[in-house]
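Our platform keeps sequence and structure together, in a single record for each protein. Such a record has a labelled line for the sequence and another for the backbone structure tokens. The tokens are whole numbers drawn from a learned vocabulary of local backbone shapes. The remainder of this section carries one protein's record, kept here as part of the documentation:
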Amino acid sequence: MVPSGQLDFNLQPLLERLDQDELSQFKSLLRTLSLQDELQHIPQTEVEEASGKQLAEILTNRCPRNWVEMVTIQVFDKMNRTDLSERAKDELKEAALKSLQENKPPSLGITWTQESKRENLEEIQQHLKEEEEPGKQDKYRSIMKKKFCQIWEKNFWPGASENVHIVTQRYETLIPFCNPKMLTGPFPHTVVLHGPAGIGKTTLAKKLMLDWTQDNLAETFNAAFYLSCKELNHKGACTFAELISKNWPDLQDAIPEIFAQAQKVLFIIDGFDELRVPSGALIHDMCCDWQKQKPVPVLLGSLLKRKILPKATLLITTRPGTLRELRLLVEQPLFIEIEGFLELDRKAYFLKHFEEEVQALRAFDLMKSNAALFHLGSAPAVCWIVCTCMKLQMEKGEDPAPTCQTITSLFLHFLCSQFTSPPGSCPGPFLQVPVTALCLLAAGGIWTQTSMFDGEDLERLGVKESDFHPFLDKNILQKGKDCEGCYSFIHLSVQQFLAALFYVLEREEEEDGDSCRWDIGGVQKLLSKEERLKNPSLTHVGYFLFGLLNEKRARELETTFGCQVSLKIKQELLECRVKSTENKPLSVTEMQEVLYCLYESQEERLVKDAMAHIKETSLHLKNKMDIIHASFCLQHCRNLQKISLQVEKGVFLENDTASESDTQVERFQNDEHVLPFWMGLCSIFGSNKNLIFLDISQSFLSTSSVKILCEKIASATCNLQKVVLKNISPADAYQNFCITFGGHKTLTHLTLQGNDQDDMFPSLCSVLRHPKCHLQYLSLVSCSATTHQWADLSSSLEINQSLTCLNLTANELLDEDAKLLYMTLRHPKCFLQRLSLENCHLTEASCKELSSALIVNQRLTHLCLAKNALGDGGVKLLCEGLSYPECQLQTLVLWYCNITSDGCNHLSTLLQQNSSLMHLDLGLNHIGIIGLKFLCEALKKPLCNLRCLWLWGCAITPFSCEDLSSALSSNQNLTTLDLGQNSLGYSGVKVLCDALKLQSCPLQTLRLKIDESDARIHKLLKEIKDSNPQLTIESDQDPENNRPSSRDFIF
């Protein structure tokens, strides 16, 4: 938290005028107005126990100045201590005038002397008040009123004015200085309106300017200035005074008076994302003098950082892509997300646009069926495009449904429908040049992140204003409403679409350097992650480019505009998007993008070509459109080997009683639309013979979707070998899957994890008893099974002869349940080799039965008992069983089992007796110096067969290293030693150094807690590696890898 520094009023005497009750009330109200973290870093007791003087010191030195000034006045007003709030306000005004005097340029016209008293101050205030009316500020207000009234009248789409008014009113109430119900005061605000293109941010900003000119904000602000970043991109270096008086230069003479009351000035900075400036440049160059000439970005950056007029109120509009940079510039902003047309607004717009309600609702439902298109519909311009396109189709008796399948098809149909030639006639040649010029303008703007173009832009791109007349007439390109000689596209998405079209249009006599001269990147650059991070619009251009690879659409373009469309770019796109990642599987996000791009094309041959290279995929299905995309593409997969699925809540509603859909009928209707696509997706099991791995995790399915999936798996020709099912609903899904896997002879690995698996146990036991069962690995994690069900499972294990690995992690086994399992281990036909009973609530009492089972069982080689409170007594009982020569156990994991030095003594005795134990994990047990000494004694003995010893986080200190070094010098078998999360320090590592340098040391892997800042340790480690090249020394920086031994119990 940045401290406030000096306040502009003296807080201490104000607080000292409060009695004890009033001070307590002040503190209480202070907490309620701490919206972010202004007070969170200060202990509440410290505030509550502070006197008036102490509280003033806390707030002055440890909280943001602007917040303290603002909230103090608010609290005083709430307490009806207006005498104190007025005094604070007077001091703020006085400080503002003094600040102006100290930074006053020579042209200010006010003489200040060291002898200036309060009388002079009052005289100046009176002088400023007289100048205000009826002076130049009123003339400025009148000019702005005329300008913004004209802009406001032009600012709406046909039939949208009422909708736009509703939207602007909705968001105005969230802005503090627009809502009289919200607390106000003489303090600076920073409000950021953010949201995607075309949803009303600029409209709202201009409405606020109009409100000010009409005196709706007159009490709050004496002056308001509107700065459009689009326009400012074309302005050269100037002073800040010149910048804000560009609409009326005579205003410059009144600026000193305006700035004298900076807390009554509003700056609206519109389209921050449009500002052409290198990333981070706004932060480095600052200017405090509003009379000094500087580049426009420097002046804006200084205003945002409050180097110029720190008391002013700022309202900024921007798209989400520049929010990160904006956060670095502004202090304590209030962020308001502008969402544009909500669903009801969109519906109302459609009902107005169409004459017949049936047509309006049909068109609205079609737009809603495409999630991406519906999202774009929050912009009024897109609603107009969709309505215009579909209304025209309906009037012709055409079905608009195929058009709404993808955004590309809708935008293409809209564009072509504006220039459709009469039947039988040829397209006019006059459209070839305009469409080429328009696409060039769009692409050039996308790459330079420009949406407002002036004469310089046209000249740079080599296009003429006359080229655009056909598109200006159709409202696709528009003349700037408040910028003479400027042009912009109807919506950013239209510009992105036309930019994509630029890449497929064949241009005659195109020189190789043209694209470079125009600053337009090639396809590879367009699709690169680095470029798309810098310029998010490129992602959408890529989507449209895939959409234009459809041959039918290409012909439609050629027919309409008489231009040649080339699809040679197809292979290049596939190379960049799919084939370049053949050697590694695509991430979930990358796969989602690929599927979206291919679906946008609606070109089956392209999809088949792309899917031929996919062998492994991970899908995160968040909505209906994700299923549609996956179904469309993956049906063409033939070489898929692994698939992972995650289905979000809300995709299937059949079993979702908490869904927003009120009735079961509505939920079924929703699923009726989704299930056909789900069925198409599930067809992959029949078309991919090499599909061997299926993972469905964290998924909210439905009874019907599970049934379809199981039917497809049961009838499939694929050879599933490994299946992972984790945390799936509904509860009976596990049972249905187990029934499906009965007799599935290729299945070797099955993981079932979740809390509601009770019903599956009979089906699972049937799978294990089936004569064709070849299951080798079974993982049952977090099952809430009964004793009876554990008994069934135990008896099934005695019949099954294929299962060798059983993982029962995180199951609460009662003593009776554990006994049943141990009896199974004693059974001569039990073939288990690896068993994990991690975190199964086992105690010392259960170790006796387990120990006797280990004596009898000659097949078990790996046993994990991690996270069970066995204690030293439990270890003693286990060692009794392990000491028998019949016991063949090789790996024992006792991680976090409450073992101390006594337990290590028992293990040491065991290891010295030619035990079969070769891997021992004692991680996170407090064995200390004595415990390690016992283990070292065992390591020195020739009969100790230990190969791996894991001692992660065992409270080993530098004092133990002497024993360890001695043991390593004589031991001939130990190849892995884990000492991670033990603070050995430089002295401990130095002691180990001599043993580790020996060529005879068998150790191959050593893990240590390494202090990266200690150069001495790094030097020692280098010496060890130089002397013993076969030794690998690892740092335990990765907390995920604190248990390497667990790898033996998972697949």
The chain has a mean pLDDT of 85. The chain has 48 helices and 22 strands.
